[in-house]
Amino acid sequence: MAADIKRFRYGDPIETDAVTVGIPVSPGDPRGLKVDANAKTMSCVMSEDTIVYGLGETVRGINKRGWLYKSFNADDPHHEEGKNSLYASQNFILLDDGTDCIGYYFDHPGAVYFDIGYTDIDTCTVSFDDMDLYVYAIEGDTPLEIVREFRRIIGTSYIPPKWAFGYGQSRWGYKCAKDIREVADKYDELDIPIDMIYMDIDYMTDFKVFTVDPEKFPNTADFVAEMKARGIHVVPNTDPGVKIEPGYSVYEEGLSGGHFCKKEDGTELVAAVWPGKIHFPDFLNSDARRWFGDKYKVMTDLGIDGFWNDMNEPAIFYTDEILNGVYEELEELKGREMDIWGFFKFKELMESIDNNPEDYRRFYHDMDGRKVRHDKVHNLYSFNMTKAAGEAFKRNNPGQEILLFSRASFIGAHRYGGVWTGDNMSWWSHLLLNIKQMPSLNMTGFLYSGADTGGFGADTTEDLMMRWIEFSMFTPLFRNHSALGTREQELYRFKRKEDFRHLIELRYALIPYIYDSFVKAAKENDMYIKPLAFDYRSDQNCRDIEDQLLVGDSIMIAPVYEQNAKGRFVYLPENMKFVRFRSAEDYDTEILNKGTHHIDLALNEVAVFIRPGHRLPLAKPAKRVGDIDFENLKYIEG
Amino acid sequence: MAADIKRFRYGDPIETDAVTVGIPVSPGDPRGLKVDANAKTMSCVMSEDTIVYGLGETVRGINKRGWLYKSFNADDPHHEEGKNSLYASQNFILLDDGTDCIGYYFDHPGAVYFDIGYTDIDTCTVSFDDMDLYVYAIEGDTPLEIVREFRRIIGTSYIPPKWAFGYGQSRWGYKCAKDIREVADKYDELDIPIDMIYMDIDYMTDFKVFTVDPEKFPNTADFVAEMKARGIHVVPNTDPGVKIEPGYSVYEEGLSGGHFCKKEDGTELVAAVWPGKIHFPDFLNSDARRWFGDKYKVMTDLGIDGFWNDMNEPAIFYTDEILNGVYEELEELKGREMDIWGFFKFKELMESIDNNPEDYRRFYHDMDGRKVRHDKVHNLYSFNMTKAAGEAFKRNNPGQEILLFSRASFIGAHRYGGVWTGDNMSWWSHLLLNIKQMPSLNMTGFLYSGADTGGFGADTTEDLMMRWIEFSMFTPLFRNHSALGTREQELYRFKRKEDFRHLIELRYALIPYIYDSFVKAAKENDMYIKPLAFDYRSDQNCRDIEDQLLVGDSIMIAPVYEQNAKGRFVYLPENMKFVRFRSAEDYDTEILNKGTHHIDLALNEVAVFIRPGHRLPLAKPAKRVGDIDFENLKYIEG
User: Fold this and answer.
1) Cα of A540 to nearest chain B Cα, Å
2) pTM confidence score
3) Do B598 and A571 touch (CB under 8 A)?
4) CA separation for the pair B437, B430 (Å, rounded)
């Protein structure tokens, strides 16, 4: 059967702009879904063999069965497996029992709840606060066919500049031009390739968006040019919250233009983020979006050609409304003896301050005439920030390729930029989570993606950093990023510098393969990185294995993600050539037979398996992407 | 070479009572350790092949390399891999590079810091706030020989009553006799075996230790007898904090006897825990220990014959000293605009309230004449609470077998009781942590041990519960326990009741093997559960694999600990008989060859591998341990 999509309408949906292809509304309900309008639920039965793919960037496995997920973009760095929401909301699921498969996209801008075998181990139930939405049911012969068809209707994925496939170094804590220059110098001294150095929030004047602190960066344009002359792109962080400060032009313009989100009473919402008190631009309004988008020109005029949009769930540290309430309740507890219940109340009060649901119900958007309370369209906020930037770049920087990626996301944003998976931790379990998130993000169009390699929060270790690099070297976005107060983790901080250099060089040798596979996947609505079962669907082991992935058409990877492991088990669905890389020039190859193996992989070794009939091109390692010779490649035959 | 132990003395050690065998002090330093008295460190080099075993109950793997651990008993339920301290402190490490091995025991009652390849990937450094301690260096031909020798000097492990090998159901939330009776009824209705029902803090009057609320339990002795008549032991929670309440006899006695911990000025420390304001008994004083121990008689006189000692790190919710300081600082922040730094300060203030290090420096112990500040001997607190109970049982209940286990622990306590691994979470990663903690606990003498099966905090899932049971059925302590406010997880709450019944019945069928292996390990200072490498040391794969374990002499287990996995990889160091159990009566067997396999294991299936030349006895399933026929066993030959 050819792939087929049907659209169904429930209630009075808000148009999200996630889908770009017009599809007539079908009568009835989607095949396989039992719709209960009173309960605001849609549910389906899962057989024992059913795998549920999807949900993009969230917790747990590639198979999403056995948990509760809430699509409601959340600023939660401490995202262990007990959490329900992460930074992103991608409401696409795909059920496959091995013979029958179907995909569903729930096009709804507010909270969506997925109970995938949690309450009842055999039932998948999707529910809504308001059942106003479109549901797309996508049929096809295989999961991959369904993904491709879904990707067709949501539009082509963003393709970044080629240099954005290089290695990037970041840290919350680089304070000035000197700090960034030092990073570049250290990498160059050690001959470790690098294409990007990121500027986290420190570069701004008092955390004011679209400013650069003139004391830290006395002549920004010259500095950016100096870095670019040595082949390094400086990529700043951009935040939605605009500091309330009379005289600050972005604040003044936003206020006089009426571009900020307002409360019920028509006054601007005041929330606090990095700079203290701020207003939020109303990205859901086309005038505000255009206004904010044009502000990026302040930065591109300085020569900057890459941005990461941060904090755009949007994260809220506090509002006075919540904080004053907390202070009142604290006053009541003061001096009292707290037993268990008092103590718990105290703790809960403290935890209620940031990202409080009440705050998300406190302000409104003007969706070009339609006034909508924020919580009803919460998941569109980051999408429209990304869109504001992406549209502005087309308008103001025609012909220029600009790097753009975001923390929060919603399907649709993939047309304008990529994502990183937010503030993870330096945990081995977050390396594994990274492995499992990548194919799910690919299904929903976010091809340019990757995690904070080495981990953002908490202290990393040299071995975690090395193993993480051995995975991240296959993700399109490849960035080492860490938080203020954690162990410094630039690669030159560690002991085995030579091994790190070899690994980054190997990434650069692989860029022709990675880039070509990426562009092909973007243009053909295909997946750059996918689960084994997408290509070996009838192989039961492949349906089960979540820690080996297919990258492009030619290779399978099997990263090590356990501390102190000197190897790992690997399953080959067919005979493949196992390449054990120590560097782009130093590797062994061996044909391994279909079946189960335990392979040794020393800390500095990377396993790549070339599929039969395929070959893996390797470029001569270069220090910058721009210096890679894409024409003269060496091939390892499969 | 025969096993050999040397003792070394540094500074002025506090006697901990961890070691029971007198060993003369040797001159010089232990082999392999570089001692730096100024830096208060002892360090050694690790080769690439060195595995570092030990540290008992803590985070991360069986091989402890690559992290920082701090021995300082901590009440931290949110113990992901970024943490450094858990509930227990067992300062024993064992380095093995495959040919040379050596064990070190750092006999120190305060904080001990282990940097095992964190700062320098090739160096293991142990450090102290005060370098007053004994170091025991244990030599032997194999890791197992070293463990046995170490166990010999710390004394024979506690052996609980046989019924304590049954299945136990617990939940913070059983409020009264009716609740507990209902649990028993439901298990009996479904024919699921059970031997214990636990009472968490709710059974007390206002959380006062050694009280039973007469409204909830109108006639406790009758109720305990009624439960015992149906073969179920009621096991209450016991806490160290004594509520400050004039007229409450335990408080009055403790105060008049001078049994509570005092501050510098000689007045009793006031801290807050469950009941509100409390005093802490000074378990490090022999009079206080005897006094508190005798209080257990209040409970044993009611027919109770099992106890779990909780909160004995000791956990502190707050003291007025800290809380008042926090209120003062909050007052200063009030009404101010908080930018990032203000907000972080606010958050830190809130997190400083419980288990504050300042509070642990605020009070003292009277160690039979020697006044010692609490933080210097922090890790002895729970040990001496366990000892108080264990000694009292010998004194007051001669000949009676009483179940006793503790949350916090220190080596030495293993002679008086077992441990559970504290307040874990309903996370798949905590099931894996449980697997990795068990052999480490065994090395340090804590044989009677197990985790809160299904997870204490957070919401469990049916599949997690089932997979966890499939591992916990091999741990001596086998308890399902969960926290107030989380999903209820008694087995009858789930859908696949029949599968759960079969699994618990299988545990009961295995009890003859488990019990005999346990008692043999205890008596011979051996390990009940151990890493593969302890028996297959020259097999590199066995040195690497941490998710398969040897249980007793005859079997290897390979639990599934990944959500939605329908099987797993397994490595066999020699040919073994693979038994795929669905129940004690329903299983397949198959000889699997030495090497690597991927085996299918449905959600209700348990993998056991019988070693060649061994056999696995199975009893006829019974509903109570007391009804198991230990004589008429069926054997599966290996």
Assistant:
1) 9
2) 0.97
3) yes
4) 10
